[in-house]
Amino acid sequence: MRTNWKYMPVILAASLFLSGCGNILVHNPSSSAAQTVSTEELGSINETDLEGIVFGMENHYIVLNSRNIDYAHNIAYDKNVVRNFHTDAGAVDLTRIGKYKVVFTVTVSKAALDAAKGGGVATMADTDSAASSGAVAVIEKIYEVVSLERAQRLADQGIIVWDSGNATHPKSDGTIVAQEIIPADLIESEETELEEAPEEMDDGEEEHQHIWVDKKIHHNAETRTVHHDAETHKVEHEAEGHTETVTVTEAYDEPVYETITYYVCEECGYEFNGSDGLSEHQAETGHSGESTKTVSEQTGTEHHDAVTEEKWVVDKEAWTETVVDRAAYDETIVEREAWDETVTVCSVCGEER
Fold first, then answer.
1. Per-residue 3-state assignment (H helix, E strand, C coil) for the chain
2. Whole-number pLDDT of residue 27
3. Whether pLDDT at 10 is above 50
4. What domains are defined for the chain?
5. Of 39, 30, 113, 38, nearest to 72 (Cα)?
6. What is the pLDDT of residues 182-211, one digit of tens each?
């Protein structure tokens, strides 16, 4: 079987990085929350401050419905500077397409960070001596969950997309997009081209003569989804109401008064409302003497009807109605129809010709 040397520079770089630089630690997700660090009295730093200290914190694409994703995959850091590295990916839903925030909280020794930034080499002594002086960076990255079709388009453009277990989604031709996780200044020969190795046989593989056969590979259509917002128009509605008869003044009866003169007998005090009555009284009784008394008395009432007016009463205020002419919808656009490809492979070992 032929060994694929195309991506060996990256593999070699990672090997040199992990084995030759003793102060670099590749992040282990199982230990991300092993140590709880209080940040109440720690200073604040940003991602720029961690350049050359932490490597591999990037935005990522993940194939929909992938499993066993390590969100800190391929992240490495200087263990003499970093005290604690914590990953929070609780917001990510791998079963739903969308963009999600993954939050990395990096706690560092301030003294060790300053030593590393100053051109020196940070040591564990720097970290230990700075136990009461630290700094924290909270860094957000976007992890986007994409459809299989979009993942394929991204991979064909040379963009890394993760499948289950952080496996790199291959291009349509089966090749794998290389992941470069180590910065160039930490490896000795990142650009070195390695000569192609001779064909080798795996242990237990027997030599055989290739038997070439045609194999048909089906490729699904390549599509993308375009969202269209609802099409609407506005309709203005006037207020709705009715006319009511409103009473301004209630109906009432007004008393009517008249001025009346009474004639009074001086001897007995009997009152008469006319002089004739007094005269007859005195003739009968022999009384004498008289006086008059004028008073105002109610002699009747005058009726007044109620006073009313017509008034407009609002039953429903004026409003604006949004009328949907066409509901929102998603349109699937076929960028490339499904097609079948015929390749020639060995029926014994599966090698393509």
1. CCCCCCCHHHHHHHHHHHHHCCCEEECCHHHCCCCCCCCCCCEECCHHHHCCCEECCCCEEEECCCCCCCCCCCCEEECCCEEEEEEECCCCCCCCCEEEEEEEEEEEEHHHHHHHHCCCCCCHHHHHHCCCCEEEEEEEEEEEEECHHHHHHHHHCCCCEECHHHCECCCCCCCCCCCCCCCHHHCCCCCCCCCCCCCCCCCCCCCCCCCEEEEEEEECCEEEEEEECCEEEEEEECCEEEEEEEEEECCEEEEEEEEEEEEEECCCCCEECCHHHHHHHHHHHCCCCEEEEEEEEEEEEEEECCEEEEEEEEEECCEEEEEEEECCEEEEEEEECCEEEEEEEECCCCCEC
2. 53
3. no
4. 8-200 (2.60.40.10), 252-304 (no CATH)
5. 30
6. 443 443 333 333 333 334 444 444 566 777
β-pair type (134-146, 60-63):
parallel
Q: How far apart are CA 38 and CA 131, in angstroms?
A: 12
Three-state secondary structure string covering 217-247: EEECCEEEEEEECCEEEEEEECCEEEEEEEE
Determine the Cα–Cα distance for residues 322 and 76; give it in Å rounded to an integer.
54
Cα(8)–Cα(179) distance, rounded to whole angstroms? 11
Predicted structure pTM score: 0.43
- Structure token pair of residue 259: 């001025």
Structure-token pair, residue 76 = 């490495």
